[in-house]
Amino acid sequence: MSLPPPGTIPSMETSHDALKDNTIIVVLGASGDLAKKKTFPALFGLFRQGFLPRDVKIVGYARTKMDKAEYHKRATSYLKNPNDDPEITQAIEQFKALSTYVSGSYDEGEAFAALNAHLEEIESHYASKEANRVFYFALPPSVFVPVAKNLKEQCYVTTGINRVIVEKPFGKDLDSARELLSSLKQYWTEDETFRIDHYLGKEMVKNLLVLRFANIATGAAWDKNYISNVQITFKEPFGTEGRGGYFDEFGMIRDVLQNHLLQVLSILTMERPVSFSAEDIRDEKVKVLRSIPPITKEDTLLGQYVAANGKPGYLDDDTVPPNSICPTFAATTLWIHNPRWEGVPFILKAGKALNEAKVEVRIQYKDVTQGIFKDIARNELVIRIQPSEAVYLKMNAKTPGLYTRAMPTEMDLTYKRRFTEAKIPEAYEALILDALKGDHSNFVRHDELDVAWKIFTPILHWIDGKNGARPRPVPYPYGSRGPKELDGFIQKYGFKRANDSYVWPVTNLASL
């Protein structure tokens, strides 16, 4: 009997209904930006690595009328081959050969009947009667329901497995999300539905489960007795750049905090699951989210970027409504009322047009007992989600040399240095593969979505002016760290800024 490889996680190895043969992947919204920039490159990545089902076919569907050559040009426009590698060039040609296109509307049954005829023609060449279909919604939420309805009525197979992969945003507040969820549920079961939040496919977010539950050392200090505060930060160094119309409708909280950062928070704070199977993980995430009361305006800081450093302000973007007071920066503090986390502030921060591109979790521990030390730096565990995936523990050590002083340094796991030949997959590659395997672990369950909206809806209604005057965000310069009020905001929750001479990953002793 062969033994499992070391480090196996048995409950993650359980068999799902993996699609191995006779599968068509239908990309709805195939002419749009999301499909072009994310969906097709992810499918190509899986195709090149041999992870798609055998003899898979990909069918694009959208309203845009285009011939095969134009469709293939669009679908492959973001596939990377900077050095014209002949092997990649050949793979792109093979990828084109398995992909076809059908144009049609999103709300007419006849158009989907035509799509179904195209799918049946492909399936007529199968050796067996089994036929599996995966429908990927690279679509705006306004057409989710008619598309879900038409697919169920016109394109649903009874001789195999049907699945739908739905992209965010799932509504704009609790009521609209519930309405959307219940409308989709009329046609597709929870088991057939995979709601993508692409942050759940990121390597370091998936790694959080192992970091937490496979290490006694970190788990032992993972509660209110040792942790002072936690920050989850999302920074973009660019503004709306022509996407102002979409962004102004949703804002920074809906775009990033309510989904991506809250997902990270739930994995960071949930209790140990019974197993790593999908439902056990998602049960624990829902449990911890239910312990979080709605955010208050007193625990919120809103900002909007203005022109600086030769870059335009938010209101200078022609696609943004004039005089908009939509926040492009938001910091909100959440509290978890359970025995592990009572009293620990979780500060979620996200902004556009900031000084760098970065997503990270920063766990700051409490002060060491003073007495023998004076002004000693706090320990911090930092999990860098992107770019340059890393985990580092900021700790104190004696300064090298003849002085007896403590200085902050770190135990550093930087992926690029530690794992030299590793290829870290794109989040969409990982999630599409999970959907093909039938593994729901990294997808958002309906009750999880419901409780997430409960936490954020009151603050969103305040920002939207549904219960009084709309708050006016404070200005911050394009390319800055955010509003000048941010330092005071995070300090009021107990965060202590590190010594300015400390820089990860290198400290220059000559400057001390």
UniProtKB/TrEMBL annotation:
Signal sequence region: none
Molecular-function GO term, any one: NADP binding
Pathway terms, separated by semicolons: Carbohydrate degradation; pentose phosphate pathway; D-ribulose 5-phosphate from D-glucose 6-phosphate (oxidative stage): step 1/3
Every Glucose-6-phosphate dehydrogenase NAD-binding domain range: 26-207
One Pfam family cited in the UniProt record for this chain: G6PD_C
Keywords: Carbohydrate metabolism, Glucose metabolism, NADP, Oxidoreductase
Family: Belongs to the glucose-6-phosphate dehydrogenase family.
Reaction catalyzed: D-glucose 6-phosphate + NADP(+) = 6-phospho-D-glucono-1,5-lactone + NADPH + H(+)
InterPro entries, sorted: G6P_DH, G6P_DH_AS, G6P_DH_C, G6P_DH_NAD-bd, NAD(P)-bd_dom_sf
Protein name: Glucose-6-phosphate 1-dehydrogenase
SUPFAM superfamilies on file: Glyceraldehyde-3-phosphate dehydrogenase-like, C-terminal domain, NAD(P)-binding Rossmann-fold domains
Job description of the protein: Catalyzes the rate-limiting step of the oxidative pentose-phosphate pathway, which represents a route for the dissimilation of carbohydrates besides glycolysis. The main function of this enzyme is to provide reducing power (NADPH) and pentose phosphates for fatty acid and nucleic acid synthesis.
Domain Glucose-6-phosphate dehydrogenase C-terminal: residue ranges: 209-494
EC number: 1.1.1.49
Gene Ontology cellular component list: cytosol
Catalytic EC class: oxidoreductase
HAMAP family associated with the record: G6PD
Any one of the GO BP annotations: pentose-phosphate shunt, oxidative branch
